[in-house]
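Hello again, I could really use a second opinion on something today. I've been staring at a protein lately and its backbone has me curious. Please have a think about how the structure follows from the sequence. I owe you a coffee for this, so here goes:
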Amino acid sequence: MPTRDTSDPALHAGIDGNDEPIRRSLFGEILDWMLVPLLLLWPMSIAITYLVAKSIANQPFDRALDDSVTVLSQQVREVDGKVVALLPGAARDILRADEVDTVYYQVRDVDGIYVDGDHDMSMPAEEENAPTSTVQFRDERIHGTEVRIAYVQVDLRSSRLMREQASDTVSEPRMALVQVGETLDKRARLANDIIKGVILPQFIILPVALALVWFALARGLAPLAELQQRIRARRPDDLSPIDSGQVPEEISPLVRSLNDMLERLSQTIDLQKRFIADAAHQMKTPLAGMRMQSELALRQTSQDEIHRSLEQLSKSSEAATRLINQLLSLAHAENRSVRARAFEPIELCELARTVVQDWVPAALARQIDIGFEQPGHPVMTVGNAMLLRELLSNLIDNALRYTPSLGSVTIRVRTDENRQQAMLEIEDTGPGIAAAERSHIFERFYRILGSNVEGSGLGLAIVREIALQHDAEIDVFSNPHSHDPKIPGSLFRVTLPMAHALSFIEDIG
């Protein structure tokens, strides 16, 4: 018979193999934290109540014992050198009379010898039997039963007969011991009655309290249920902020966090929509051109015409590929989460040098002199190396496209006088950018009128987004080293905070 392997974790996760952890109930957890201490404290309160009730029950009976031993001590005399208890029979009956407790009494002389009463009562311990006229109490067992005993030391010289017979030579006190004790049944009954009077109402109050706690907790968590219903009632495309004015103060941070998440999600969706719209719009032209060139090549019979059509088709596909790459770069640059996950210290000179080396073949193919200048010390900044390479590549590409043959493009890394800011400069000898155009060139798909240079109009938009990611500033000037007014050239300057400056700002912040 085949057996089933019970060690399979899917079997422990559930029949359907779902290993989703069991979700805890906020209502149940709060209820546990409220009821468990309450149920633990209740037995403690009963024990404390019992001790208090026992102490309260002892007080009146101790006073009664005090009165009994005081009355008995007043009847103790010394007659002819012997201690006697002058108790009439009626007094003995009254002392013994008790329907519940058993009452004991005892009288001992100055030598501790039994005089009257019950033989079973022992003498107090030596530390308890100090000569005093104050009534003392102790507990002991007689015949296996707990007994409360009141006792007092009686000075026999205080009696009238002693005063009459005393001589001047008698100076030391003569103390007789008088004890009265009783069992604890009445005390226990009174303590139990007190306990019942206190505890029995709690059996009624406790369920009521639990019901009130349940009701109050349900009412307190009702705003969460209302918030849940409001969120569920939203349309799938509704990413508007949740109104935090209708929720308790304790839930407001959660609502604010949800609103922040909704805002980030809305921005992401907007970016995706814009990317799709831009891609669809911009791809129409190269795709239409590629289709036209392919149809034209199919109709041609001359090999030369077919070759020219294929060359145009290759150029159109190259332009489409570049456009797609730039759209992807722009989408990546607009992703605001890049900063949180990929920023690190970067040596700017090394990064710029490697990017310039990648563009040397393209510059040579266009007969443009490309140069690189750097200071004699490292220039550190903090950022995303891939994005900064993309930024510099787009600026160099832009400079090479607008610089005529035999012109020059210079890439420069430097710092300001105080070495608080790092600067990337791309200087070209092209036609320059009019001051009125400089505020628009970083817009998407913006092209300066009259320029016959091929491009998608996305390169500088990518540069702007990457600069925003790095808290950098971009400035555009005319080339200060140009000597031909007709060809003013351009200077793009990207200013970034240096790494040690960032650390200083974070420390004082």
